[in-house]
Amino acid sequence: NACAQVEYRHRVYDQWGFGKKVAYGRGLSMLFTGPPGTGKTMAAQVMANRLGLELYKVDLSGVLSKYVGETEKQLGAVFDEVKKSQSILFFDEADALFGKRTEQRDSNDKYANASTAYLLQKIEEYEGVMILATNLLQNFDSAFLRRFKYVIEFPFTDITRRRKIWEHVFPAEVPREMLDVEFLAEEYKFSGSQIKNVAVAAAFLAAAKKEKVTMKHVLTGVKRELAKTGKQMIASDFGPYYYLMEEQEE
């Protein structure tokens, strides 16, 4: 539906005359919300590809400033640049920039709220495509939410989604043995991004040994991915596949 608002805007606004009735707010603004690794950035890339537009990803660290008026100046430059290039404007982790307005207890709060008001104005004026992604919807100012045409939730993977991701994560060209997708999907509650990390790690392990990708390579990738979160796995943690991991502990 969101893509259709870009693909058919000429027909609706110009040929069908809605442009006379909608003089303000013709842009397409969307908010993608959900936990990390659930596909928000990928979805923005998919939309850009379908619409034949570039994805202009804003580096928030280069926009936010502690100096009065500097954030607005930087944001104004971003919007001006995107207007020239006809790109999709993409803000990742946008709650850092579009967070809730605060009570004015000091001058810093006053300037922060001024930046928020400026952003509200820019969102309404912008006639292109804007996507904001956030991991924390509760941190978003409700005044911003009303201005988005679409708020799209990206839920964390359930077992059905995990199974499908495991089934398709390896390219057809990858030589591999039969993998126990059911076990992987049920046992490890990974996001799509984490499953991809495991698959890539397994592929490199297999390539280095000139072998096909096997459950041993995949489970080693699982072990490394979980180690990132501080969880150390031993052979017995791998259930029916403990024997594949025993020699790593020797």
Question: Care to describe what's here?
Answer:
The protein has 250 residues and is an alpha/beta fold. The protein contains twelve helices and five strands. The protein has helices spanning 2-7, 9-15, 18-21, 40-51, 70-85, 107-125, 142-145, 159-168, 181-187, 192-208, 215-227, 242-249; strands spanning 28-33, 55-58, 88-91, 129-134, 150-153. It has a five-stranded parallel beta sheet, sandwiched between helices. α8 (159-168) crosses α9 and α10 packs across α11 (215-227). The longest helix is centred in the middle third of the chain and has 19 residues, at 107-125.
Estimate the helix proportion, in percent.
40-55%
Termini separation comes to 56 Å
Oligomerization: single chain
Query: Structural class of the helices, strands and pairings?
Result: alpha/beta
Radius of gyration: 23 Å
Strand content: 5-15%
The H/E string reads: HHHEHEHEHEHEHHHHH
Number of helices: 12
Unreliable stretches = 101-111
Strand segment count? 5
Mean pLDDT: 84
Spatial strand sequence of the major β-sheet: 2-3-4-1-5
Largest β-sheet summary: 5 strands, parallel
Q: What is the overall silhouette?
A: elongated
Please describe the structure with a list of short key phrases separated by commas or semicolons.
single chain; alpha/beta; 12 helices; 5 strands
Please sum up the structure shown.
By secondary structure, the protein is of the alpha/beta class. The protein has helices spanning 2-7, 9-15, 18-21, 40-51, 70-85, 107-125, 142-145, 159-168, 181-187, 192-208, 215-227, 242-249; strands at 28-33, 55-58, 88-91, 129-134, 150-153. α5 packs parallel to α6 and α10 packs across α11.
